[in-house]
Amino acid sequence: MGKYLARQTHLHLNGRKLKECGIPQGSTPQLRALYLFDNEIERLDVGPLPTLTNLYAYNNQISNFGDLSTLGRLQKLY
User: Fold this and answer.
1) Three-state DSSP class for 21?
2) Which of 17, 24, 54, 78 lies at a C-alpha separation of 20 to 30 Å from 68?
Protein backbone atom coordinates (compact mmCIF):
# COMPACT_ATOMS: atom_id res chain seq x y z
CA MET A 1 0.00 0.00 0.00
CA GLY A 2 2.89 2.38 0.71
CA LYS A 3 4.24 2.23 -2.84
CA TYR A 4 0.74 2.81 -4.22
CA LEU A 5 0.21 5.95 -2.10
CA ALA A 6 3.67 7.28 -2.93
CA ARG A 7 2.77 7.39 -6.65
CA GLN A 8 -0.59 9.14 -6.24
CA THR A 9 -1.07 12.71 -7.46
CA HIS A 10 -4.85 12.69 -6.88
CA LEU A 11 -6.46 10.92 -3.93
CA HIS A 12 -10.22 10.33 -4.01
CA LEU A 13 -11.67 9.82 -0.52
CA ASN A 14 -14.99 11.48 -1.25
CA GLY A 15 -18.38 10.01 -0.30
CA ARG A 16 -17.04 7.42 2.13
CA LYS A 17 -18.72 8.71 5.33
CA LEU A 18 -15.33 9.50 6.84
CA LYS A 19 -15.38 11.22 10.23
CA GLU A 20 -11.70 12.20 10.07
CA CYS A 21 -8.87 12.26 7.59
CA GLY A 22 -5.44 11.14 8.62
CA ILE A 23 -2.79 10.77 5.96
CA PRO A 24 0.52 9.51 7.34
CA GLN A 25 3.27 12.10 6.96
CA GLY A 26 5.48 11.44 3.94
CA SER A 27 3.21 8.74 2.49
CA THR A 28 2.01 10.85 -0.46
CA PRO A 29 4.99 12.92 -1.62
CA GLN A 30 3.49 13.68 -5.06
CA LEU A 31 -0.09 14.47 -3.97
CA ARG A 32 -1.52 17.48 -5.82
CA ALA A 33 -5.29 17.10 -5.27
CA LEU A 34 -7.17 15.64 -2.31
CA TYR A 35 -10.91 14.95 -2.63
CA LEU A 36 -12.64 14.76 0.76
CA PHE A 37 -16.07 16.11 -0.16
CA ASP A 38 -19.38 14.45 0.81
CA ASN A 39 -18.14 12.97 4.09
CA GLU A 40 -18.84 13.67 7.79
CA ILE A 41 -15.50 15.27 8.69
CA GLU A 42 -15.62 17.69 11.65
CA ARG A 43 -11.91 18.55 11.93
CA LEU A 44 -9.87 19.03 8.80
CA ASP A 45 -6.37 18.02 9.82
CA VAL A 46 -4.51 16.93 6.70
CA GLY A 47 -1.02 18.42 6.87
CA PRO A 48 1.73 18.48 6.14
CA LEU A 49 1.23 17.94 2.43
CA PRO A 50 3.83 20.21 0.81
CA THR A 51 2.86 19.49 -2.82
CA LEU A 52 -0.93 19.78 -2.40
CA THR A 53 -2.45 22.48 -4.62
CA ASN A 54 -6.19 21.63 -4.53
CA LEU A 55 -8.27 20.50 -1.54
CA TYR A 56 -11.94 19.64 -2.01
CA ALA A 57 -13.59 19.43 1.40
CA TYR A 58 -17.13 20.72 0.82
CA ASN A 59 -20.28 18.98 2.11
CA ASN A 60 -18.74 18.03 5.46
CA GLN A 61 -19.37 19.16 9.03
CA ILE A 62 -16.09 21.04 9.46
CA SER A 63 -15.92 23.25 12.52
CA ASN A 64 -12.12 23.24 12.86
CA PHE A 65 -9.67 23.59 9.98
CA GLY A 66 -6.55 22.66 11.92
CA ASP A 67 -3.22 24.10 10.75
CA LEU A 68 -3.41 24.92 7.05
CA SER A 69 0.01 26.61 7.09
CA THR A 70 1.61 23.21 6.39
CA LEU A 71 -0.04 23.26 2.96
CA GLY A 72 2.50 25.64 1.43
CA ARG A 73 1.42 25.25 -2.21
CA LEU A 74 -2.35 25.20 -1.63
CA GLN A 75 -4.02 27.31 -4.30
CA LYS A 76 -7.65 26.25 -4.09
CA LEU A 77 -9.72 25.19 -1.09
CA TYR A 78 -13.27 24.16 -1.80
Assistant:
1) coil
2) 17
